[in-house]
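Bench log, entry 3. Co-assembly request; chain sequences pasted below exactly as received.
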Amino acid sequence: MTVFIQARGLRKSFGTTDALRGIDLDIHRGEVIAVMGPSGSGKSSLLHCLAGVLVPDSGKVIVDGVTVSALNEARRSALRLAEFGFVFQFGQLLPDLTAVDNITIPLLLRGMKRRQALKEAHGWLDRLGLEAAAAKLPGELSGGEAQRVAIARALVAHPSVLFADEPTGSLDSLAAENVLTAMLELVRQAGTTLVMITHDPRTAAYADREIIVRDGQLAATDRVGIS
Amino acid sequence: MNPSIVRLAVIGSRASWGRLLGITAGVAVGVTLALLLGGAYQGLDARDERSSWMSASGGYVADGDTSPRAVTGDMASLGTDRVLLARTTDRHEGARIGRFDVAALTTSSVTIPGITDLPQSGEYYASPALIDRIARVPADELGDRFGTLTGTISDAGLASPDSLVVVVGATANDLLERPTAQIVTDFTGLPYRANSSYQTVAIVGAIAVLFPVLLLVSIVTGLGAAARRERFATLRLIGATPRTVAAIAALETAATSLVGALIGVLMAALLGPVAALVPVDDGVFFAADLAVTPLTAALVVAVTVAASAATAGWRIRRAGIGPLGQTKQRQEKTPSMLRLLPLAGGLGMLIATTLAVLAGLPVPRVGTLIIIGFTITTVGLLVAGPYLTLIAGRIMARRSGKAAGIIAGNRIRRTPVATFRSVSGLVVAVFMVSVFAGAATTADQSAAPIVGPGSLAVTTLIQYLEPTLDAADPVGTDAERARLAATPGITGVVTVYTLDSGDSPDVGRLLLVAEAANGLGLGAVPPAAVVSVNSDVMTGAPAVFTPAEATDVAELTPSILLLGTDGSTAALERARTALQASTIFTTGWRPAVTRTDLADDRLQSMAASYATLAYLGIGVATLIAGLSLAIATVSAMIDRRRMLALLRLLGMNLAGLRRIIILEAAAPLLAVMALSIGLGFLVADLILVGLTDSGRSVGWPDARYLGALTASVVLALAAVAAAAGRLGKNTDLAAIRYE
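Structure output for the full assembly:
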C-alpha cells in the first residue's frame, strides 16, 4: 500500500501546554486507523493537524504529496472540500437544514446542480435506511440517525480521507454498533482512508491499525484488526 | 444571592467584558438619542410657545364707531390698555421677516415679550439675527424700512436665534389706513394651542424615530446570548435554580444598562448644544430648548434599566436553560397570513377615506382618519414583515442552487421574526422617507414658480393695492411713482387696473395701458389705448393680451402696482424698501412680493415645513437602524459561530460564508424594503388626495429622497460588510474546536 498521509515531527502547543511533542506517522491509502489515548493526550490535536484544521508549530503534514501545513487557509479549505470528510461526536448538522439538504452541502460546494445533489443525497439516505428522515430537521432526528446523516454528508462527495472524532461517543451501544458498521462498510467499499479517534477498544478493534497517543507522543502503533 | 457567584457568572472572561462593553455602549447611544429626541420634541413646543405672542389678535377698527372707546387717529383714543397692531410678513433676500407695526401710548400697560417698552413712531425693536442682517447690507436695501433701532428683542420673545422679527412703532393714523390693523389688549399669556394634526404627526414621527432606538437597546442587550446561556447552564449544573439564573441575568443587564444610561445622559447633555445647531423649520434651537429636565432624564434612565432587566430575565427563563444547557432549540412560531391583516386594514382605511372624499361624501375628521390609517399601515408593515420575510426565505430556499442561498434561505424561513427584527428599523425608515418624499414632490411641484415665454418675470415686484380703502390716491402720487422709478435697479413702474362690475368682457381680467404693457416684455400687445390680460398672469401663466373696451384708465380701479427690476438682489431689496417708505405701502394688504416669494409661501405649508424635520428624523432613524443591523448581524454570527465554522470545515471558503451573512440580511431587506417604497408612495398619494380633495398625485422624488434611499442601502451594506469582516476571526477553526 502507498503512503497517503505523512506526518513528520509534528509539534503543537496551546499556551504553555504541549499538545503534540514530535509525532511521526504514515497512513496508507484505504487504511482504517483508530487513534486511542487518555483524555488530553493530544488525539484531537493530531487529527486536526492531519486534516489541516490546525497548523502545527513545527513539523509538516503531507497529503498525497501536498504539504498541508504550508498551504494558506483558502487552499486548505479547497483541500478539505476535495479530499476530506468529517464526522464528530455530536452537533455537526446544520440545524436549519433538513437531513437531505445537510447531505447536499458538500456536493453543492463542489458546484453540482441542486437537482443532481438531491438525487445523490436521497441515494445515500436510502443506503443508510434513512429515507423516511429525509425531510426532518436535525432536532427531530435520534442520535443514531443524526450520526448516520453526518456520515452520509461526510462521504457523499467521495473524499479520500474520512476524519472521525469519537463518532459513536454519544450513542448507546446498539446505535453505536449500527453507525460504526455502516461507516466501515461504506469506507471499505469506497477505499476511503479512515482516521478515527475513539476511547472504546471494541470500536478500535474494527480498525486495521491502532495508534496510541500519550502526552503528545505516539506511545504505540499496532496492526490489530480486520483488514 | 452570593455576589461572588454573580461576578463569576457575569464577568468571567475577556469575551464577557467585551459583551458588557457592547451592551453599555449600545444603551448609551440609545439613551443619548432618546433624550435628544425628547429634548427636540419639547424644544419645538417651547419655541412655539415663546413666539405665541405673534399670534395675538383683537377686533378690527369699526368704521363710524362713535362710542367713547372708538379708536381714532388720535393716539389718546387708544388709552393705556390698548394698542393698534398691523401684522405683515416682509422679506429680505428670500428670508421671511415677521413685521409687527404697533401704535401705542408711551404710558401703555400692554407689553410684548422680549422688549421692555413699546416703540414709538419712527422707532423699532429687532431680533438679533435681523439686526445683524440690517448691519450687513446698505440701509436702502433693508434698514430704511423700519426707522431708528431702539432695542433688541430678547430670547424670551423669539422662537429661534435665527428668527427675523421686527416690532415697528407707528401712529394710530398710519395704522388706521391698513386693512389688517387690529385693536389688541394683550400679547402675553396667550395659550399656545398646538395644531392637533401637528401634534399627532409629531407623535407618530417620534414613535417612528424612537422605534429604532428601542430596537437598538433590545438588540445590544441580547448580545452574546448563546455564550451566556452556556455560562448559565453551568450555574444550573452546580445548583442554581431557574429563578436565580433569571435574577442574575436581570441584575447583570440592569447594572450594565444603568452605566450605559448614565453615560447616555452625560452625552446628551454634552451633545445638546451641538444638536441645537441643526436647523429645523427655518431656525436653529436655543441650547436651553433641547435641555431635558432632570426628572425626564431620571425617568428615561429608570425605564431603560427596568425594561432591559425585565427583558433579560424573561429571555433567560423562556430559554429553558437546564443543567445540561438549553433544553431545546427555540423554534419560532411560523408567521401566518393573518399578519397581513393590520396592513390591509390600514391601507383599506386610507383608500376608503380617500374615495369617500373624492366622491364628495361627508367625512368627519378626514385628517384624523388619515393619520390613524397611516399609523395602522406603519404598524401593519412591522407586523407583516416576518410573514413576508418567511415567504422570501421559502422562495430562496426552494429556488437557490448554491449552498449559501440554501443555507441562508432555510435559516430565514426557520427564524423569520428574528431575521426581520434586525432589518425592521431600516424598513420603517425607508417607509417613512418614501411617504414624506412622495408628499414633498407635490409641494415642490406646486411651489415652483412657472418660468417661460410670456410669463411675468420672477424678479418683478407685485404690490397688491386695497381698492376699497378711502385713500386719496391708492397708487401714490406722481412724485412717489417718479421716486420709485428713479430707484437704482428699478426698470419700470406699471399700474394694473380692474373693472369691478358691469357686462364688459373685461370684468375679471386685468387692464393696463398698452404702452406700459409693452414695457413688461410679455409678448405681443394689440394696438389699443388700453389692453386687457388674463388675471392668472400674476401666477405665471403666459400673458394673452386683447384690446380692452375701456379707453381711459381713469374709469378703472387701480389694483396692482408692478415694479420691474434688473433682476439683481440689491435692486429687488431696494425696490421693496422704497415701496415701504412710500404711501403706497400703507394701502396694501401686505408688502410687495415676487412670484418666487409666493412660491416660497406655498412651500411653507405644513407638509413642506415638516419635510426638513422628517428628513432629519429619518436620517437619525436610518443611522440607528444601520447600527442595529450591524450589531444584530455580529450577534447572530457569534451565536452561530460553531455552525459557520463547521461549514468552513466542510470546505466552504470565507467568501461563501460572507454570502450567507449578506443573503440573510439582503433577502428581508429587499423583500420588505421594496414593499416599503411602493407602499410609501401609495400612502403619500392617498394622504394628499384625501387631504386636498384635489386629485393631486405624487411625482418623481427629488434628490434628497434618492440620497436618503442610497444612504439606507449603503448603511445596510456597510453594516453587513462590517459584520462579515469579522467572519474569519469568529469562525476560526482552532478557536471552536473544543466547543
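Chain A touches chain B at residues 44, 48, 53-54, 73-74, 77-78, 80-82, 84, 86, 91-92, 94-98, 101, 104-106, 108-109, 113-114, 139, 153 (CB under 8 Å). Helices of chain A lie at 43-50, 73-83, 99-109, 114-127, 143-155, 173-190, 201-204.
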